[in-house]
């Protein structure tokens, strides 16, 4: 008889926090998992990007499904069309691999930590490029 494994019936909750770091520089921090059940939370937070740069901090996200990667790509495209910019903080090898496989890494600038992202964005003046 083969072993049976429990099948997850619900995902970990996804929590979102918005922090305006400076005018024109918004940090969206997510914690939990991004899958089909929690995708609407991600989409809601990305739906109305402010002018300037939005940093999507995924350092506390354990899992991002393909639908989440697609939502991030769509948000990056929308930000670009509206003269803004979207960047991602992802410090896990799993997320970095997902972004490489899906091609998202070529579309979205990725940083290993929030401090790295903020330092780079503030030193280069990216947040003012669209504002």
Topology summary:
Blueprint lengths: L14 E8 L2 E10 L4 H9 L5 E12 L1 H16 L3 E5 L3 H10 L1 H4 L2 E2 L2 H11 L1 H4 L2
Parallel strand pairs: 2-3, 3-4, 4-5
Antiparallel strand pairs: 1-2
Helix pairs in contact: 1-2
The helix/strand order is EEHEHEHHEHH
CATH superfamily: STAS domain
| DSSP strand count | 5
Shape: globular
What is the average of the pLDDT values?
86
Runs in which pLDDT lies below 50 for 5 or more consecutive residues are: 4-8, 127-131
The fraction of residues assigned to DSSP E strands is: 25-35%
In CATH terms, what is the fold-level topology? Answer: Transcription Regulator spoIIAA
The level-1 CATH class: Alpha Beta
- Main-sheet strand order equals 1-2-3-4-5
Structural class: alpha/beta
* Tally of individual helices: 6
Measure the end-to-end span.
Answer: 63 Å
- What is the CA-atom radius of gyration, in angstroms? 15 Å
The domain count comes to 1
State the share of residues found in helices, binned by percent.
40-55%
Quick synopsis:
It contains six helices and five strands; from the N terminus they run ββαβαβααβαα.
What does this structure look like?
With 131 residues, the protein is of the alpha/beta class. The chain has a single domain (15-120), classed as Transcription Regulator spoIIAA, CATH 3.30.750.24. 41% of the residues lie in helices and 28% in strands. The protein contains six helices and five strands; from the N terminus they run ββαβαβααβαα. It has helices spanning 39-47, 66-81, 93-102, 104-107, 114-124, 126-129, and strands at 15-22, 25-34, 53-64, 85-89, 110-111. The chain has a five-stranded mixed β-sheet, with helices on both faces. The radius of gyration is 15 Å and the shape is globular. It starts with 14 loop residues before the first strand and ends with a helix. Mean pLDDT is 86; it is low at 4-8 and 127-131.
């Amino acid at each position: 008889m083969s072993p049976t494994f429990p099948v997850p019936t619900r995902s970990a909750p996804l929590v979102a926090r918005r922090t305006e770091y400076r005018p024109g520089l918004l940090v969206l921090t997510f914690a939990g998992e991004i899958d089909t059940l929690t995708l609407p939370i991600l989409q809601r937070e990305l739906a109305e990007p402010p002018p300037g740069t939005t940093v999507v901090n995924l350092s506390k996200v354990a899992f991002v499904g393909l639908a989440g990667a697609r939502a991030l790509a769509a948000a990056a495209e929308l930000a670009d069309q509206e003269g803004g910019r979207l960047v991602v903080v992802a410090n896990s090898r799993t997320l970095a691999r997902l972004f490489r496989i899906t091609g998202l890494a070529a579309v979205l600038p990725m940083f290993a930590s929030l401090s790295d992202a903020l330092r780079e964005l503030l030193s280069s003046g990216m947040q003012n490029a669209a504002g």
